[in-house]
Amino acid sequence: MNGRISARGAAISPAILSAVPSLPARIIAYLFVGVVCAAGPVVLLIAAGTGIERALFVHSSLKAEGVIVGLSPVRPNRSKTSWRPVFQFSAEDGRSFTVMSNIGQRRSTWKQGEHVAVLYQADHPENAHLDSFAQLWMPEVILGVVGAAFSTIPLLILLRRRRSNA
């Protein structure tokens, strides 16, 4: 037979050898898989860190009543428009603040003149947030889902290798 001998002592046919990718192709594939495998846990750590930071913000915030004074359009691309609510509220010391949310939504659930709950830090009221799940937690939820999805890839690879080696 014109093949090589495998690590288990069995002969490998030339047809199988020709189907094995070249060394540069394998290196690129392993680097790609390595980056994807590392990205999942890194994104999960970022989600956890920002989630803890946001939870501390919510826990230590003061609550105020505000009003939606406008909706600011955001166009990430030409076909779709997101809307970021602009709200106004008065801090405990009587100063008035107008803040644009950092979270945009495709279809705005906010209406101009609507009364809303606002969370703010006494020492930085200009960094206020609307007290709603989407406005407070959506970035962390998205990061967590993406991180979890990419973190399952290394687990699937390990399970597949264990099954093939068994």
Task: Describe the model.
This protein has about 170 residues and is of the alpha+beta class. The protein has 2 domains: about 5-55 and about 145-165, no CATH class; about 60-130. Helices cover about 45% and strands about 30% of the residues. It is built from 3 helices and 7 strands, in the order ββααβββββα. The chain has helices at about 15-20, 25-60, 135-165; strands spanning about 5, 10, 60-75, 80-90, 95-100, 115-120, 125-130. The strands form 2 sheets. A 5-stranded antiparallel beta sheet has the order 5-4-3-6-7, with helices on one face. A two-stranded antiparallel ribbon has the order 1-2. α2 (about 25-60) packs antiparallel against α3 (about 135-165). It is elongated. The mean pLDDT is about 85.
What is the topological layout?
Layout: E1 4-5, E2 11-12, H1 14-19, H2 23-60, E3 62-77, E4 80-90, E5 96-100, E6 115-121, E7 124-130, H3 133-165
Antiparallel strand pairs: 1-2, 3-4, 3-6, 4-5, 6-7
Number of domains: 2
If helices are DSSP runs of H or I spanning 4 or more residues, what is the number of helices? 3
Number of strands: 7
Largest sheet: 5 strands, antiparallel
* H and E order: EEHHEEEEEH
Shape: elongated
* Radius of gyration computed on alpha carbons: 26 Å
Q: Which range does the strand content fall in?
A: 25-35%
The main sheet orders its strands as 5-4-3-6-7
- Residue windows where pLDDT falls under 50 for at least 5 positions: none
Mean pLDDT: 85
The N- and C-terminal alpha carbons lie at a distance of 27 Å
Helix content: 40-55%
Q: Which structural class is indicated by helix and strand composition?
A: alpha+beta
